[in-house]
Specification:
This protein is mostly helical and about 150 residues long. It has one domain (about 10-150). The protein is built from eight helices and no strands. It has helices at about 10-40, 45-50, 55-60, 70-75, 80-85, 90-110, 120-125, 125-150. The longest helix is centred in the first third of the chain and has 29 residues, at about 10-40. The termini are far apart. The mean pLDDT is about 80.
Length: about 150
């Protein structure tokens, strides 16, 4: 089995892939910090784009990602505790986006691997898939408990 060679040169296609990370992180932070609060202050925009969660509308039970947008906006505004209570996934996403974006920007700028190839092997392992599914199940349980028992949601 071939192991990735550390610090190897990236081809152009992989450098472009590396650029997607920092651009996505910057877009997420900018949207959460500026665009969503701007839109929420204008009722006509909220009426056009505000979509309720389909699962919650049908069953009354929140999905694992209910409160995610509000969590991301709270984290971008510096209210980390509120973000964690609304949806831990949103707060974690906002916390890990800058370092991962910086790492990928360094990969793209230097043209070096810097561990980029190793992520493919990590993502292909079945155990990691179970960890992701288990995390989503735990997040869903958290959302149901906070929504039903604590009234956060």
């Amino acid at each position: 089995m071939d192991r990735p060679v550390p610090w190897r040169r990236l081809d152009v296609a992989h450098r472009v892939l590396c650029l997607i990370g920092p651009v996505s992180a910057a877009a997420m932070w900018g949207t959460a910090r500026f665009l969503i609060p701007w839109a929420e202050a204008r009722p006509w925009v909220t009426a056009l784009f505000g979509r309720p969660c389909l699962l919650r509308s049908v069953t009354g039970v929140p999905c694992p990602f209910c409160g995610g947008t509000r969590s991301v906006v709270a984290a971008a505004g510096g209210a980390w505790l509120e973000a964690l209570l609304l949806n831990p996934f949103g707060a974690v996403l906002m916390a890990i986006a800058p370092p991962i974006g910086l790492w990928l920007a360094l990969c793209a700028a230097t043209g070096r691997d810097l561990g980029f190839s190793a992520t493919g092997g990590f993502l292909r392992r079945r155990v990691n898939g179970y960890v992701v599914l288990g995390s989503i199940a735990a997040l869903w349980a958290f959302r149901v408990v906070t929504d039903c028992c604590l009234g956060v949601g």
